[in-house]
Structures are given as structure tokens and as C-alpha cells.
Specification:
The chain is an alpha/beta fold. The protein contains 12 helices and 13 strands. The strands form 4 sheets. A 6-stranded mixed beta sheet has the order 2-9-8-7-4-3. The chain is globular, with a radius of gyration of 21 Å.
Length: 404
Amino acid sequence: MNDDACGQGGAFRAGSFVSPAPCGSGSGGLRRGYLEKEEGVAGVSGRVYLDWNATAPVRPEARAAVAAALEATGNPSSVHAEGRAAKALVEAAREAVAALAGCRPQEVIFTSGATEAAGVLSRLPEGHDVLVDPTAHDCLVAHWRGGGADAGGGRPGGHTLAMGLANSETGVITDPGAKGADGWAYGARRADWLLLDVVQAVGRIPFAFAWSGADFAILSAHKIGGPRGVGALILREGLDIEPLLRGGGQEKGRRSGTENVAGITGFGAAARAAQAELDAGCWQGVAALRDRLEARVRDASPETQVVGLDRPRLPNTACLLTPGWKGETQVMQMDLAGFAISAGSACSSGKVRASRVLQAMGYDETAAASAIRVSLGVRTTVEDVDRFAEAWIAARARQRARAA
């Protein structure tokens, strides 16, 4: 482990979906460069950004890579020198993303984001059921089709199970287990193929597509500090699936359309930096900060629940349920106090409704509506966490007084 990289000992155990216990009470693992605290991390001076699961601040490495790639004139499909130079940028990024995702470079298909990559579920063979875990992201739930709750309820074409490895709202990590002789177990059902949404997991916990047993995985650049509008589908070598987009045959015929060279290059730069942080154990310090935040909140408000406290979780995510205090109200109050948090997934938090994910986990609508998500990053500091805790505790005291 490189102590100079983030100032925190201990690394995640390779080959495990489970995040380890935090090591000590580190400061969040800060180093120079991307990890150095900058004023106005969310673009507004003096504010504290605690919504990393929605999007991570763009890394300087990624920003520089995008700027340099914008100077590359060629089309990656062209055979002249300029085209070859552009193609070299794309292929270097493909290798970096493959290294982070633990797969072969030829299994990486660049897309416009994870939502587009999830569209592979609509390209499965005719008659193929898609079983979606109810806590999965909306981009997977949208593709649910066919099959009842019983083992015989599906169509004869087979089944694919789609699920998130780490939940964006709660941080809870779900290990899909091992594939049995008759497929992946999902309740009373069995699935032939497995798609894993690793958007929140990659770069924060160890993941290797090669040993996960999955057939597909989806990931997004902006969740690891890359540019928005770029993602990837990991497709197990040998699978014959209809293309995501038809046309010029780019991405080995899997996804047509001229490649976004600048965005893809930024994705590659972010992937290399994220791998270095993971190798250095930087997220151990983030886990310590998350635990510090949760402890302060629960000391002041014992009735507040931490979702998934007894389960493996991402090192950066705290999902807090406070009875009688709506999550949307908390988000607005914290925003006015200078803190960016959310009431759930960024793809749905703009909609005033109780979390579907929490209700699928067994919480009633009232409890689910009280949820907030505080998600930290490698640039989060002890000062950030303590300032937020103090602001939240003060707001909680005012809310209690009004309710009395």
C-alpha cells in the first residue's frame, strides 16, 4: 500500500464483494491533486459536496485528458495517421477501464452511459425473460419483462437476472453468490445469465468481472470522476447479442456511432486514477469518516436509523431514516446551510415520492419518505463531516421543537 497516496493504512481484501471494517479514524485519505480539498468543490464557493453517489467531481487528470483529446482531429475509424492516433486514445482508455473492471479489453464496449449500456437487456434473444431485483436502479427495472413469481412462470426462452452490486441509495452490497449447475438462483427462479450494475462499486471496492461470474456489467465514467455522457457495457467474450445501436459497426459491431474520443479518453484517465486510489486503500479513510458521521447523528438522534448498518456496505454511503422528518425537507434545509446531499438516487430524487428501494427492503412508505443519503468521497475531510453533523443536529433540534 502507498501511504503517501492517501495517508491511510489497510486495503480492501481482493476477491471480495464485502467492504472491510474501517481502519482507524483517518482524515479521509487526502493527498495532493484530485484528493486535495478545493474551495467550492461543487462549483459554489464555501459549500460542502456530500452527494458523490450522484456524481463525482471531475478529476484534474480526466479534465486534462479530455482537453488533450479534443486536439486530436482524426476519426478512430479512419486509416490515416490522424485516425490511428484517435483510435490509439480509445484503445488506451479501453485497457484502463478493463483493468479497473477486471475484464479483458475486448469485453469493454463504450457507450453514452450506464443507462444506454443497460439497454443490452432489450437485445436479448426473443422469449428471454428479464428478472430484475426490486432494489435495482431504474435503468434496470425499466427492462423487467415476463415471468411470474413462481418457478414455472417464465417463458421458454430462458432468464437473465439483472441486479446492482452496490445500491446507490443505501450503499448495501449484494453478493449474487455462485452460479449453480442450473443457473443463478433468484428466489424460486433460476437465471441463465447475470447482469451486474457496478456503477457505484467500481473504484470503491474491489471488483473483477472475470471472477464475478457475470455475463454483463454496466458502468459509468462520471461516478469515478470522469466526464458525464460516457459509460461502458462489459460483455462476456463469446456471447452473441444484438447490437445496442446499428449503423457503421463501431465497437466491434456492438454499438455503432463515431466514438466520443474525448469523453472516452477522460474515462480512461479517471479509471487509472481510481485504480490507484483503490490500491492505496484510500477508501478506508472514507469509511472511517462515514462511521464518524453516523455516530454523531445517532448520538444526537437515537431514533435515526442507519440503513444496512449490519450488512456489507460501500465505504462512503450513509442512508439515514429519521421518523417524522421528511427527507425532502432535510435536503432543502441542508442545501440552505451549504451542504449538498440527496433523498435518494439522483435519477429519481427530483420526484417527490418515497424511495422504491427502501420499500422493497421492507420499510413502510412513511419511513422510506424520511430517508436522506449522505455520500462521501476521497476529497471529503473531517471538517466537512463535522460541519455537516453540527448543521444536521441543529436542524433536528429545531424540527423537534416545532413538533412538540
